[in-house]
DNA sequence: TCATTTAGTGTAATCGTTTTAGAAATTGCT
DNA sequence: AGCAATTTCTAAAACGATTACACTAAATGA
C-alpha cells in the first residue's frame, strides 16, 4: 500500500498528529521537528491522501461547475469554455480543483449536483446559468450550500451572491445602436424565456423601442436554443413575415451565426439588407462573414469573479452577499448599416 | 450534522453494514430488509458520503483530465471543449465525474496530477496531449496508474493505451490534395516539435512531397503555438521568404485563422494566391473567410473512446493495452485551388 | 435426529487523515 | 530548588463509509 502519515511518523520518530501538523505548517511545532519530519516525508516520497483529509476536515478544495444542460451540448457554445477559463484561473490561484457536472436532463443535473454536495465531493458550486423557478437554486439556498450564480437570480436576488452583466442596459444600447442607424423594424432573437439573461435583454430591447416611440411587435420576438440551429429557426420564421425586420438584436454569437447562415441561403446580405447586433463577442463574432457587431460581456471575467466570490464564501460562511456587475461594451464591426428604404 | 448510514441503520433497526449492503444492492440482503432500509433512507433524506465511501473503497468514480497547459490557455482552442464533450458523454454514461487539472507551467501540472493521483482524488487520468519525453507519462507508467493518452505516446507505444488518428496519413493526404492541384511550393505550419501530433503530421507531409518528387525545404517548416498568434507568426515568416509557398498544410484550424489574418493584412487572397488545408474541422473552419478545407479528425470521438478505454482499465487493471485509431476525413471547402503560374 | 448448508445480519477492523484534550518537557521566576 | 507557565508533542476519538469474519436460525440431507 501507499506511504501514509504513520509511516512518516515512524521514520521521523514522532506521532502521526505531529506529522499532520507539519503538513499544515502549524506554528505549534518547532522548526527542528518540522525539518526532521519533512526530511522523512521526502525520503519516503510521501503524498497526503486528499480523500482521507477531506473526510476528516470536511472540506475538499474542489469547486463544482454546473452547466445548464449536458456538458456535451453546452460546450458547443464558446461561452462555456470561456467562462471555464476564467473559473480555472481563479481556482488555480486559490489552489482549488474543478469538477464538472455531467447530466443530461434538468432533473438528472439536479440529482447530480445534490449528490455532489451531499456527498461532500465539492465545497461549493458555480451555476453557469440562471433560470426562472430553478429547483436546484432553491435547494442550494435552503440547505445553505455555498454557491454563486453567473447571471441574475430569479428570486431573492438580494440573498444570493451573483455575478452578472447589466443585461438590460446592454440590450437597450444594442437596440439603440440600430435605432440610431435609422432602423424601425427591429426584431429580437433570444434564448428560452426561462433564462433570466433572455428576459433582461428582452426588456432592454423593449425599453429602447419604447423610448424611440417604435412599436413593440410580438411577432418580432423569437425564443430559440443558444445554438446555430436556434438562430436559423428564428431567422426563417422572421423572414416568413409579411414585413420582415430590417435589423436584429441577437442574444448570442452562435445564434447569430445561424441567422447569418439562413440569411445567406435566402440570398439576403448583411448589413445591406439586414443589420445585426449580437452578444458575447466571442471569436465567432470576429470571424463571421461579415464580422459581427457584438456586445462584449467579458465572459472570462464573469467566471473569474464568480469563482473568487465563491471561494471567499467557502472560507467564510458569513461573507456578505455580493452582487457583482461586470461592465459590457459594444464592439462595432461590419454587421450594421444605416437603414435605406 | 448530516444523516449518516448509522442514522439510517437505527431507524430501520438493522446494522450499518446492512445499510451499506442495501446501497450496494447486495444479493445477500433479503428483499424485505431492502425495502425497510430504503424506506428509512427516504424518510431521513439520506445521501451517501462519497468521500467516506472513497476512503473505504479506495475508488472515487472520478476521472482526471490533464491539459497540455493551463486550462486558461488551452481552452482558447476549440479542440479542447470538443474533446471534453466526448469525454463528458462517456463519463456520464458510466457515472463518472470529471475533474480538471489546473496548472500553468509544465512542472506545476506534473505536480498537480501527481497530487491528484497519489491523493487518490481520481481513479485515473486522460492526457489530452502527447509530447516527447514526457515526465508525467513516465511517472504514470512507473506507478501503474490507470491512464490513457489522446495522441501517440513517444515511447513504449505498445504498452500504453492510447487513442489517436493516423496523423501521418492524414497529413500526407492533405499534402497530396495540394499536390494534385498542381502546387509545388507547399509549406507546413505545425505546433511545437515536442508534440507527437506535430511530428507525425510533419512526416506525413514530408512523405507526400517525396513521393511526388518535390524538394523538402527546411525554410518551409514552421513550428508555432496552437493559437491564432502562432499562425500569424508563421505566415509572416513564410511571406518574408524569397520564394514563398503557394500552398500550406496547417496543423490546426485556429492557427489557420491566424494565417488567414496575416494573409488578409498583406493583401493576399485565399485560395487565389495561396491554398490552405487545415486540421480539426472545427466550427472555425466552416466559418472562416473563405471556409477552410480541413481534415476532420473526429475530436469528439477521440475523447469518447479514450474515456471508455480508461474506464475499462479502471474496472479491470488487467485489461489489455489498446490502440484505437479514429478515422479522419478531409472536408473540402473553399481554401484550395489549382496552382496557376 | 443431528450434522451440515445456506441465507441473512451483525461486529468490528479498516481506510488515512484532523483535532481535542492532555501529558511531558522545558523555561522562567523567586 | 520548587513550582507555574509555556512550549512541544502524543494518544485517541472522530470523519462515514466498506468488508472480512462471525454468528444465528432455518433448511436440507442421510
Automatic annotation (TrEMBL), chains A, B:
Domain of life: Bacteria
InterPro entries assigned: HTH_LacI (IPR000843), LacI/GalR-like_sensor (IPR046335), Lambda_DNA-bd_dom_sf (IPR010982), Peripla_BP_I (IPR028082)
Xref: Pfam families: LacI, Peripla_BP_3
Molecular functions per Gene Ontology: DNA-binding transcription factor activity; transcription cis-regulatory region binding
Classification via CDD domains: HTH_LacI (cd01392), PBP1_MalR-like (cd06294)
UniProt keyword annotations, A-Z: DNA-binding, Transcription, Transcription regulation
Residue ranges of domain HTH lacI-type in the record: 3-57
Protein name in the entry: Transcriptional regulator, LacI family
Species this protein is from: Parageobacillus thermantarcticus
Source taxonomy: Bacteria, Bacillati, Bacillota, Bacilli, Bacillales
Amino acid at each position: 500500500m501507499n506511504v501514509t502519515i504513520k509511516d512518516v511518523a515512524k521514520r521521523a520518530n514522532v506521532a502521526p498528529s505531529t506529522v499532520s501538523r507539519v503538513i499544515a505548517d502549524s506554528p505549534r511545532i518547532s522548526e527542528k521537528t518540522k525539518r526532521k519530519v519533512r526530511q522523512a516525508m521526502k525520503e519516503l516520497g510521501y503524498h497526503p491522501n486528499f480523500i482521507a483529509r477531506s473526510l476528516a476536515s470536511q472540506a475538499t478544495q474542489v469547486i463544482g461547475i454546473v452547466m445548464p444542460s449536458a456538458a456535451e451540448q453546452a460546450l458547443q457554445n464558446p461561452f462555456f469554455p470561456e467562462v471555464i477559463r476564467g473559473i480555472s484561473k481563479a481556482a488555480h490561484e486559490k489552489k482549488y480543483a474543478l469538477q464538472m457536472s455531467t447530466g443530461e436532463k434538468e432533473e438528472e443535473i439536479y440529482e447530480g449536483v445534490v449528490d455532489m454536495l451531499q456527498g461532500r465531493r465539492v465545497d461549493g458550486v458555480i451555476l453557469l446559468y440562471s433560470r426562472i423557478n430553478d429547483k436546484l437554486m432553491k435547494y442550494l439556498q435552503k440547505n445553505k450550500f455555498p454557491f454563486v450564480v453567473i447571471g441574475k437570480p430569479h428570486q431573492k436576488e438580494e440573498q444570493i451572491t451573483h455575478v452578472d452583466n447589466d443585461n438590460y442596459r446592454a440590450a437597450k444600447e444594442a437596440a439603440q445602436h440600430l435605432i440610431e442607424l435609422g432602423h424601425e423594424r427591429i426584431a429580437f432573437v433570444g434564448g428560452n424565456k426561462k433564462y433570466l439573461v433572455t428576459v433582461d435583454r428582452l426588456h432592454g430591447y423593449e425599453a429602447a423601442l419604447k423610448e424611440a416611440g417604435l412599436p413593440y411587435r410580438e411577432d418580432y420576438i423569437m425564443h430559440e436554443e443558444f445554438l446555430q440551429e436556434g438562430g436559423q429557426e428564428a431567422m426563417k420564421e422572421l423572414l416568413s413575415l409579411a414585413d420582415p425586420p430590417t435589423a436584429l438584436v441577437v442574444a448570442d454569437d452562435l445564434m447569430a451565426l445561424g441567422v447569418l447562415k439562413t440569411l445567406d441561403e435566402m440570398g439576403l446580405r448583411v448589413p445591406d439588407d439586414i443589420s445585426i447586433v449580437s452578444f458575447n463577442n466571442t471569436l465567432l463574432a470576429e470571424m463571421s462573414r461579415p464580422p459581427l457587431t457584438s456586445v462584449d460581456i467579458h465572459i472570462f471575467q464573469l467566471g473569474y469573479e464568480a469563482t473568487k466570490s465563491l471561494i471567499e464564501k467557502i472560507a467564510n460562511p458569513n461573507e456578505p452577499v455580493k452582487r457583482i456587475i461586470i461592465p459590457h461594451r459594444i464592439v462595432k464591426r461590419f454587421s450594421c448599416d444605416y437603414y435605406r428604404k
